[in-house]
Amino acid sequence: DILLPWAALAVMAGCAHRVPAVAVEAAPVAHIVPLPRSLETRPGTLRIAAAVAVEDAGAAPMARRALDELLATLDIANADTGTPLRLQRVDDAALGEEGYRLVVDDAIHLSARTDAGLLHAVQSLRQLLPASAGPAYRVPRLAITDVPAYRWRGLSLDVARSFLPVDYLERHIDRMALFKLNRLHLHLTDDQGWRIEIKRYPRLVEIGGASAVQGGRAGYYTQAQLKHLVAYAQARGVTLVPEIDMPGHVQAALASYNALACDDVANRGTYSGVEVGFSVLCLDKPDVVYPFVRDVLEEVVAIFPSAEIHIGGDEIKHPLYAGFVARAAAMVEAMGRTPIVWEEGSVADLQPGALLQLWNDGYAIDAAVARGHPLILSPCSYLYIDHGNHAGQPGADWCRAEGVPLARVYAFDPTPYTTAVGVEAALWSEFVHTDAATDERLWPRLAAVAEVAWSPAPRRGYAGFVRRMGALRPHLDALGVRYYREPDLGWN
Ligand code: TNX
After folding, report:
1. Ligand 1, atom 12: closest residue by C-alpha
2. Fewer CB within 10 Å, N side or C side of the chain?
3. What number is the ipTM of this complex?
4. What is the side-by-side strand order in the sheet with 137-146?
């Protein structure tokens, strides 16, 4: 294992001919995405044969679950005689809420202040190891100290235009966790569908859940399914962030409860087109609309423990818009949570802690930034991955005619946005209707999103990303990802 330093010493000592003739195995290279803050490789490799001896003080259930899963995948036993593998909570303020250290010498040492940090250490170890079982493993000797640049590293999935089943979302959460992504924003309602069961308004899913965009999937999640999904994600370090989009993008709700519309038309019908901006809750009927909004938000908050709740607010022009956003945001605050609003909501009178989600490159939110609002960055020309992997791929192209290729995603630099809490890609589903099509839009671009959000801009570079990500293809294969065969990564 330590042949190379011996050889070097022998050469220096002028006795190269006495180096023992042992076959030299190519040392594995440390391919980790997102790029760690600091990674020092040391000479040689650590060999793991059939077993590791796990030592942990029981203080990291998420990390331990992920580690046990990794060992099972690779057929590595946990036995006293194995290579020592230590999981340890340490009181090191420099590691923050999610940082970790990973040292490989004669043992494997994972340490962090938190379970979330240790979970990330396990994910790095997983990327250092092969994706599937073999007779023995070699891990490069190294020392990693790693801390994320941003606390919010996310993806928004539009399950409203076209539904995604629970089992897909579970698999997707596993894949996010491998790249240390920690926020899954679910766009649960829109004109074409209402996907979340609300017990006080059963027709929302009976009628709104049965509709979808043309060619898309209908369906909805029961509250029990969502609670299950929340727990599944939580165990993997991912927070589910629900969005109820209001006061526009609500045709599915109006079709279910006509009284929410201004004209009270008995059956307005569901909608399966792709236009935006035509529907609105009747803001002239506050006695109908605000009790509805409060009831819905109460049930949402009871399902999702997320500190932040998204109330939409996009693409609607109405004289009472700003007042609505302020009032809905205040309801969220009164429920002990923090509201998120799409950037248009910056015209409303919001608490300084309310988050704004920037999406439209060039939209004027300077006033909101000046007021200190934290930002989630989703600029469409970099991070709207409903747009093509390459120019000419069918689907959305309104924001960038050339699509949003991998290199473009990677080029996004969040650093000028000084109040940003993080970065979130968005996959809208007007034209993306199946699990396979969803995978093809998400991967490998989501790995670039992860690196943009985790690794400070001055440290990263596309050539290095391409080399590291290119090497992680077997990890995506092992997870059954039907990724886009990205030519930049040599995957065609
Ligand atoms: C804009 S971005 C929208 C969505 C569409 C998307 C399509 C935003 C807040 N609204 O309603 O699905 O463009 O790319």
Report:
1. 428
2. C
3. 0.93
4. 38-48, 137-146, 100-104, 108-112, 83-89, 51-56, 77-78
